[in-house]
Amino acid sequence: MSEDSAIPGGVLIAGCGDLGTEAGLRFAAAGHRVTGWRRSADKLPAELNGVSVDLTGELPTIPADTTIVVVATAADGRTEDAYRAAYLEATGNVLDALDRDGIDARILLVSSTAVYGGDDGEWIDESHPVAPATATATILASTEELLRARRPDAIILRLSGIYGPGRTRLIDQLTAGTAVVPQEIQWTNRIHRDDAAAAIVHLTTQVGDPGTVYIGVDNEPVDQGEVVEFLAAQLGLPTPPVGQPSSARTGGTNRGNGKRLSNAALLATGFRFTYPTFREGYLAVINGDGVRHP
């Protein structure tokens, strides 16, 4: 593995959207040669060797020096077909390409905490059984099962509520006057895009014998109403009225009463957050720190 070599090994990122690109830039800054696969490679920064690829089709040859593979795909929509193509089919294709080219790499799959289900405010860690409550979450769970069957030592990083530069849904609702403070407690979990990217790099390069599943969230599960009130105060806006949210996705994980996710396993690897809670992270967003990658 690359952590034992004088020259860092190559990195392949299959799915170079905002998160994958940010992770790629961090790998490149650490001295890795990074190849990024996505439909429109011309959108990638110069630090990455971009290749235009349809991950559901035939894949190009993987560079022989590749020691790390990150699968960070994203669905084009919230339909079952979109999820099946972006996650299950794409991941299977990447695994086929690795076998075809004889690449023995550390693999990390970016997944979602949606695979846990749960909406009663319970605490959940990596030992909690997978129990997807939606069709799309079921596809994510099937993708994890496929990866685990073919590469048992692969790392699965389950993220929740990614926010950051350009991801301003909740702020936009506040400025538009459509935000509400939920009537009941709605536990939400988040991670800033930069911390999610840093966790990808950390788990694949800095942990000698990583576990196979990590939850990627910040240090503080928080009631959605507290987040809304904090942001309103920071933006100089009145506190929104109490009401029923118009959407089940307003910046966190808030169906029913939501769930509280533990990041203890990630912290135990030595990882430290730049934005340990929503407060530091949203202040950075309000200040315009960072850019969202196309």
Features:
294 residues; alpha/beta; Rossmann fold; 7-stranded parallel β-sheet; two-stranded parallel ribbon; 8 helices; 15 strands; globular; disordered N terminus
Give the topology.
Elements: E1 10-14, H1 18-29, E2 34-38, E3 49-52, E4 66-71, H2 80-101, E5 106-112, E6 123-124, H3 135-150, E7 155-159, E8 162-163, H4 169-176, E9 181-182, E10 187-188, E11 191-192, H5 193-205, E12 213-216, E13 222-223, H6 224-235, E14 242-243, E15 260-261, H7 264-268, H8 278-286
Parallel strand pairs: 1-2, 1-4, 2-3, 4-5, 5-7, 6-15, 7-12, 8-11, 9-14
Antiparallel strand pairs: 10-13
Helix pairs in contact: 1-5, 2-3, 4-6, 6-8
How does this structure look, described?
By secondary structure, the protein is an alpha/beta fold. It has one domain (about 1-165, about 190-220, about 260-275): NAD(P)-binding Rossmann-like Domain (Rossmann fold). Helix content is about 35%, strand content about 20%. It contains eight helices and 15 strands. Strand 4 (about 65-70), helix 2 (about 80-100) and strand 5 (about 105-110) form a beta-alpha-beta unit. Helix 6 packs parallel to helix 8 (about 280-285). It is globular.
Radius of gyration: 19 Å
Proper CATH architecture: 3-Layer(aba) Sandwich
Beta strands, count:
15
Question: Total helix count?
Answer: 8
Strand sequence of the main sheet, in spatial order?
3-2-1-4-5-7-12
Helix content: 25-40%
Q: CATH topology, anyone?
A: Rossmann fold
Spans of at least 5 consecutive residues whose pLDDT stays below 50 are 1-5, 248-254
Largest sheet: 7 strands, parallel
